[in-house]
Amino acid sequence: MDRTIHVHHLSMTYRVPVRQEGLGAALRSLIHRSYRELAAVDAVSFDLFAGEIVGFIGPNGAGKTTTLKMLSGILHPTGGDADILGFQPWKRQPAFLRRIAIIRGSQPIGGPVELTVMDSLRLQQLIYDVDDRAFKRNLGQLNAMLDLRTLLDRQIRALSLGERMRCGLALNLIYRPEVLFLDEPTIGMDASVVETTRQFIAAYCQETAATVLLTSHYMADVERLCRRVILMDKGTVRYDGDLRTLSERLSPYKILRVSLVGAKALDLSSFGEVDEAENGTYDIRVGRRDVPSVTARLLADFPVTDLAVLEPPLDRVIDRAYRTGVA
Ligand SMILES: Nc1ncnc2c1ncn2[C@@H]1O[C@H](COP(=O)(O)OP(=O)(O)OP(=O)(O)O)[C@@H](O)[C@H]1O
Ligand SMILES: [Mg+2]
């Protein structure tokens, strides 16, 4: 596999003004400001490879957006280094900027909002120097995947949030970046668009072997798209590896979902913590190693009509990782 991103001890320390209580202190601070240093990103290292979609997760303030800004050349780091496709991002060389894109779900689309979507795409073609044949081919594919046809002659400023997001993706992908930074790409989208967007990201990555680093607070995005996750907390990498392994490490139990006929208030609690999922269907938390024996006892002693072994919901696993740290 080709390594496309190499990050070594990357750091960003912000200088933030200290505000003191009281009028006197406020006046004094006009003359003499005091600052404190905030290590938003603290010696972060990782490598990414072509074709990977890696989940970049962590609680609010962990340093994810700051890292993405440095890797896309928006911010100059205060320490460490990064190599992306042979470039140092913050030099902002045109040859680098042509090969990467950053898409931030919470940000408006850049560029003049009076233009139609089609004109904006043409503008991107000029800026990124895309030849006509490639433009037509890429547009055809984006059209098919993002269903843009009805949006092409609309003005950017008149688009709804979800429409804007689809167009934002198209505008950034029309020049086929090889490295894609997605900062909460599905924020504010309705369920149908979220699913289309996820499918689209997966398809784009598979077709172009792009490297994708994706931040999201929706664990469903991460679960659907990423095999590998990098978990950040307080500016440092707390875990880098397989998502499944993280889940197994953090939740030593599975969920046995059983349906029982005509049984009510049956005492299942001897098997583990029980929740009634719906009428007659119960979720029992069972230690991973006890799953076979508990299953056997359930089948032998209870009128079971259906039984499934489920992984605990990823949201809960990750929530636990945020609260208690990764062991
Ligand atoms: N321009 C700035 N000046 C000073 N401090 C900043 C600046 N931008 C971010 N920070 C601080 O740096 C830390 C990391 O912020 P960052 O936006 O990278 O977090 P994040 O992981 O993206 O969080 P979220 O999940 O909320 O988006 C936070 O403590 C934040 O308050
Ligand atoms: Mg952020």
Count of strand segments: 13
CATH topology of the largest domain: Rossmann fold
Number of helices: 11
Q: What CATH first level of the largest domain would be assigned?
A: Alpha Beta
Helix content: 25-40%
Silhouette: globular
The succession of helices and strands, N to C, reads EHEEHEHEHHHEHEHEEHEEEHEH
Ligand inventory reads:
adenosine-5'-triphosphate, magnesium ion
Largest sheet: 6 strands, mixed
Tell me the radius of gyration: 24 Å
Average pLDDT value? 90
**What is the total domain count?**
2
Q: Name the CATH superfamily assignment of the largest domain.
A: P-loop containing nucleotide triphosphate hydrolases
pLDDT < 50 runs, ≥5 residues? none
* Largest sheet strand order: 5-6-7-3-8-9
User: What's the architecture of the largest domain in CATH terms?
Assistant: 3-Layer(aba) Sandwich
The N- to C-terminal Cα distance equals: 29 Å
- What amount of the residues lies in strands? 25-35%
* Structural class assignment: alpha/beta
Q: How does the SSE layout of this entry go?
A:
Layout: E1 3-17, H1 23-31, E2 35-49, E3 53-57, H2 64-71, E4 79-84, H3 94-97, E5 100-104, H4 117-127, H5 132-146, H6 161-173, E6 179-183, H7 191-208, E7 211-215, H8 219-225, E8 228-233, E9 236-242, H9 243-250, E10 253-260, E11 274-278, E12 281-287, H10 291-301, E13 304-310, H11 314-324
Residues 64-65, 183 line the site of magnesium ion.
